[in-house]
Amino acid sequence: MTDLLPGIQTGLDLVGVFFFAVSGCLLAARRRFDIVGSLLLGSLVGLGGGIVRDLILDRGIPNAFAQPVYMLPPILAAGLVYFHVVRVERHRRSLLAFDAAGLALFCVTGTLKALEAGMGPAPATLLGVTTAVGGGVLRDVVANEVPQLFNPRGVYAVPALLGAGATALLAQAGWLGIPSGAAVAVAVFALRMLSLRFGWRVPLAARLPRGGPSATGTRRR
Amino acid sequence: MTDLLPGIQTGLDLVGVFFFAVSGCLLAARRRFDIVGSLLLGSLVGLGGGIVRDLILDRGIPNAFAQPVYMLPPILAAGLVYFHVVRVERHRRSLLAFDAAGLALFCVTGTLKALEAGMGPAPATLLGVTTAVGGGVLRDVVANEVPQLFNPRGVYAVPALLGAGATALLAQAGWLGIPSGAAVAVAVFALRMLSLRFGWRVPLAARLPRGGPSATGTRRR
Amino acid sequence: MTDLLPGIQTGLDLVGVFFFAVSGCLLAARRRFDIVGSLLLGSLVGLGGGIVRDLILDRGIPNAFAQPVYMLPPILAAGLVYFHVVRVERHRRSLLAFDAAGLALFCVTGTLKALEAGMGPAPATLLGVTTAVGGGVLRDVVANEVPQLFNPRGVYAVPALLGAGATALLAQAGWLGIPSGAAVAVAVFALRMLSLRFGWRVPLAARLPRGGPSATGTRRR
């Protein structure tokens, strides 16, 4: 179905784990958690989406626990943030960029894993989106913030959905390879970053709220 | 064990998903999330309880991912809230009513699914309650609010527990059918709504708190 | 691999469930939830970590649902808190002590369960830590607080990690028995309590934050 070799696929998965883990460690730094909290939050963000995906696919012990190599990216991420290799001072922008990179890779690799487990294109797309947004939602929920996913400034789920759908269609057509998969990931990343840069929005949940729903209780980053 | 046909059972499950999804989309509207956030929050509330149930039953890929028809109720719910078919202006009362309807249906269908998977009456009752309250807890946690479940005004888990227990007992006695199942759901819904209307309460977690536990940090809707 | 008899192991597991459940019921009392909320929060804390562990091990229905005896510790905990047998007035200190006791037992029993399921020492250690910290994170997340795990005052994950690692090494060496397992649990409990008493800390997530990361939005207990 695809010519992405297993080794390359695991490699991409690990890179995605690393990007998400950095976003978790940056949030830990912003919230002044300690280094162990940073490692744990990084692990949760990096590995959470994939664990949820593997639980839903119901194929034995999730990769994150079966293969200890998955612990390396969070350890690396916590170290880079600790030594300020990733610039903590501009944490908000960095956090969003690393989060976008994780989102871009995971909507491709998550959809692929689901297809390989025998899911049809529509469920595989949904599971790909779940994998891609799951880690970030866990990060924000555990740190007691409203998930980035629900921040109406910028689009978040839309690029992930388009990327997962494109991956499923390309795989269906037999056209999914390293170049096409990379192109999808780059497009998802670009769409997310451009939406943040230019403040693209989709319509609100309720059309023309005539002063009705109060914004009380809303907290945004 | 039951004479609820599979088709009818799936139908009731989908109706329950729809009710819960509306409650999620109404919360999204109140918090001024966008339409995509509304769809995702609706999906999480509508499908979350059932996914947790299916993961615990450990019988392959959860229905919500295996059967794409489960995506329709959240899409419908997000559309109805967007076009104000469900009255968003009175969102709080609507939200609680739709939430109660989902609770009523899910404590019946969740218990049934657990019995069909071979669980005994006591574990099936517990899993039915978990299914019924799970989606709402996920909704409130992800939206960074204290779950409705813990709001001491009105009863929430008690009707779900009574409904799940009644379902298990009726099934055990061979009396569970469409009329009796519907009667249980209606009774759960009525009990929940009446408790909200008249402010019924159960005792607090600690008897006669003599000024001890401070209410600091408590946020209620 | 170990000479802890299954009955003793289940017994220790139930004691751990009880300790964590008390911490949940105490938090419910502090937040002025009602008695049903107390029972549910106690159940979530006590059983949540083990359910996550059993889902990840993918070995059928989690113990908490398969064996109704697991419901007894949360019921007992809710009763003891309701009748002030556990001193609710000094809830913060009590909560942290019961939480520490649960942490100490679960990092041993969780690691053991993972080893028995055939995991290697490194993944078993990780799953033991996940089991030990999982319930407490669920408690705090559901009650809309920043998890104790991320509170930089005192160490939390470090004793759990040391305890889980020691359990795995002892089992590997064939030295794990009731005395050695109990010694590990007591050491974990002591390390956690001493760290709270003397305010031991590990370094922050980012070295020497030169006024950069703002503490805005941080809430601590």
Automatic annotation (TrEMBL), chains A, B, C:
Record bears the keyword Oxidoreductase: no
Localisation per UniProt entry: Cell membrane
Pfam family, one: Gly_transporter
Keywords carried by this UniProt record: Cell membrane, Membrane, Transmembrane, Transmembrane helix
Superkingdom of source: Bacteria
Residue ranges of domain Glycine transporter in the record: 12-83, 97-171
Coiled-coil ranges from the UniProt annotation: none
Membrane-crossing segments per the record: 6-28, 35-52, 64-83, 95-115
InterPro entries according to UniProt: Gly_transporter
Membrane topology, as annotated: Multi-pass membrane protein
Major site of localization recorded for this protein: membrane
Keyword Repeat: no
UniProt similarity note: Belongs to the UPF0126 family.
The name this protein goes by in its record: Trimeric intracellular cation channel family protein
Organism of derivation: Arthrobacter ginkgonis
